[in-house]
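Take a minute with the sequence and fold tokens given here and flag any structure token that looks odd. Thanks in advance.
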Amino acid sequence: MNKTAAIRRETSTDYSTPHRPALIAALNRTLGALGIGCGEIDPEKLLNAASHTAALADYGSDDFMSRLSILTASMNREALLTPIGRFMASRNIVRMLVNRLRIESAIKRDPCICDLPMQDPVFIIGLQRTGTTAMHRLIASDDEKFRHLASWEAINPAPYPGKENVPRDRDPRILTARIGRRALEYLAPDFFAIHPVKELDPEEDCLLFDYDFWSTVPEATMRVPTYSLWLERQDHTAAYRYYKKILSYLYSQHPRGRWILKTPQHMEHLRELFAVFPGARVIQTHRDPVRVIASFCSMIAHAYGIFSDEVDPAEIGRHWSAKAVLMVKRSLEARENYPPERFIDIAYRDIVDDPESAVRKAYETLGLPFTGDDTVRIRRWKHDNPQHRFGRHRYRAEDFSLDVSGLRKQFSEYTRRFKIPEELDE
């Protein structure tokens, strides 16, 4: 049993007061009073730090610089970062840049990496908190048929210098991810209860968009509305091309099975996804959108509290309810342009109540055999991953000033089309 879970059986609903260890809160106050860690995040300094760390200078195309500049400007003006939050956010960008340098260096040495044949990937999409993570991990547990993105390699897709040929289960990047996970448990135990992260578990592939600065991860961890709005208005074809390049690079390190990938971000960009992956298949999960918005807003509030003392639940509600409406709208429009057999629709309750049937449906639609071994594997996964094992997640729509009746009207076409039942608060 995780120690955090044993102490905090339910997540906090005091969203405007970030829950963090007293030592971190005191350190933030002291640094702030001394004016340490309060300066602006400078893209040039981040680039120089990454080049120094990697001992490399070739980032490939430099078109990512405009996106990096928009992101850092939004962070400086709008994120209201604490000194420690600013330090962590800066180091995170340096990590992205270091990995980009190493990826570009490896591909420059061996361009054939990007030509390695891969099967058409399977993408799991759906609004956040609709069962995408459970569905992803259920299928990814079949490592004979599928290749998933592990958390440790999403964080550092490039091997450390001199460690390119170590056995996969002894890769030092796993230790780095383990340290990061323990730091997250310490800094934000409530976040871990909502979305547990483990270094060996499958992770969302939205992290791979970080390396070309097309990702929605920043807006899920801090307040960056200018960057978020700019990102929504862009054509993401180039983003998916670079993303495919990283997938090829990762596949060359472990060429096994068919990619099973997952992130809600794909809902906004199905047109670009299919343009770059014309043979891809999509599994979409469905759940009462009003219920999941409240759940995700709770998760976002706890994430914001890692980086900032200023968390406004009502603003989070406005931003992420509008985002969910946009995601559903774009996905519905995109689905009109593709054959229905490209998509496999799975209800959230089926994933929770009968995961064996949910996975069997996906396999049969994909033309894959579903055997007795698959049944045993799924039952074992369900036994090892019970709900609320890291604490019970509590949330309510009113905590985020959500207009429930208004949202139900906006989602009426979606819920009617997929026969999604309305959920009541627990």
Remarks:
- The chain has one domain: 3-417.
- The CA atoms of residues 55 and 372 lie 51 Å apart.
- The two ends are 25 Å apart (CA to CA).
